[in-house]
Amino acid sequence: MSSKSTIEKSVLFLRSTDPRYDSRVLRSMETLVSDDLRISGVFWSRDGDRSISIPGVLESTNFEKIADFGSGIGNLYNQILWQLFQAKALIRTSACVVYACDLDTYLVALALKLFKGYKIVFDQFDPYESRFKSKWLRFLVRRIETHLIQFADVYVVPKIERAMRDHYRRVVFPNMPSAKSFEPDYTYPSPYLFYGGVLSSDRGLFTAIESIRKKGNWKFLIAGFGELEREIKELALPNVIFLGKKSPDQIISLSAGASAILGTYDTSISQNQNSASNKVAESAHVRVPIIVSYGCTQELEVKSYQLGFVVNYGAQNEIDEVLQKLEESPWKPKSGLNESFLSEFGWEDSRKSLYDLVWEVASSEKN
Q: In angstroms, what CA-CA distances link 224 with 12, 47, 173, 221, 227?
């Protein structure tokens, strides 16, 4: 982004993943890199990698604890260590803005804000309520999350809409792919369904796996990381291929070579209603149809711009029907509609909105 002044401000990112394989945090950092904003980060790659080098990011500190994603007593111990690691980094930091990605970084940043006086940007990637099956627990966690959001100086929403900023504390940043060119990855023969992202139970992955299991000529390529990683690996199905962590550029290339992209989310979880934004944008970018759930805020765009299919979340028969349609008649993007979508919801407007608001907060007086 362009320079705003000669005064340098600093932004510290906190994220419990390796940002090199996490498109949303990587694009957020790339957006904020400038002559005026000094970007650093505290991350947890979970594979013990000591060095995380990201262009434009001056300093990266990695929590060197090898651990899987997921829940349980073992993970609780790791989470306590992670919280302490972040706390030490926050006590030492001179950053005027802390960019907290998800609740496991936001809580510790919020706890130390009173003593350090920095501003907080809260970018909620994955709603914590999705980890619970009980409706009552989900309701309780949702109320707590909603209450905590009000203490952030900026709340980032991953939503595609025309008005990119509606008031001081909220900015829409849909994690859209940049306009740079890409090469489709045709390593895997068609037809194949592709999913790239966080591997959690609210993404409809096992519904799609059951559909693919019955179709010998289809494959399901899954790239990403998360709590379901081990379970997906252990399936050992011949037409379900787990690719592990992939960079955002690799995700785009794999998406471009696919017959369809999976972008379903459990929309009974309120925060999930915005979550398909990046995948819808990637779908339009690579001109490959996407499958999304009814109830998501992108449902209208998928229908209006004819970008793919809308199904009921968890309805395996509807996934079956989509795969059958694609098998009988390969997808042909409607002339001009993908371009119209990308023009209407532009990447540059989204980037500028996030940068301007973070700069505004960084330039304000400390608490």
A: 24, 14, 21, 10, 10
Residue 4 covered by a domain: no
Sheet holding 9-15, edge to edge: 57-62, 37-43, 9-15, 97-101, 119-123, 154-157, 170-172, 165-167
Same domain, 20 and 94: yes
By CB neighbour count within 10 A (0-12 exposed, 13-18 middle, 19+ buried), where does 278 fall? buried
Q: Report the CATH number at residue 129.
A: 3.40.50.2000
Is residue 239 within 8 A of residue 212, CB to CB? The reply is: yes
Place of tokens 């952030």: 152
- Of the chain, the end-to-end C-alpha distance in Å amounts to 27
Token digits of residue 288: 């490959």
Indicate whether this model's pTM tops 0.90.
no
Mean pLDDT by 10 residues, the chain (367 residues): 62 93 88 89 83 79 82 76 95 95 94 93 81 80 86 82 50 62 81 93 95 91 92 90 92 93 90 78 89 89 91 96 92 77 71 86 76
Residue 56 structural domain: 9-176+347-363
Measured CA to CA, the distance from residue 18 to residue 172 in angstroms comes to 23
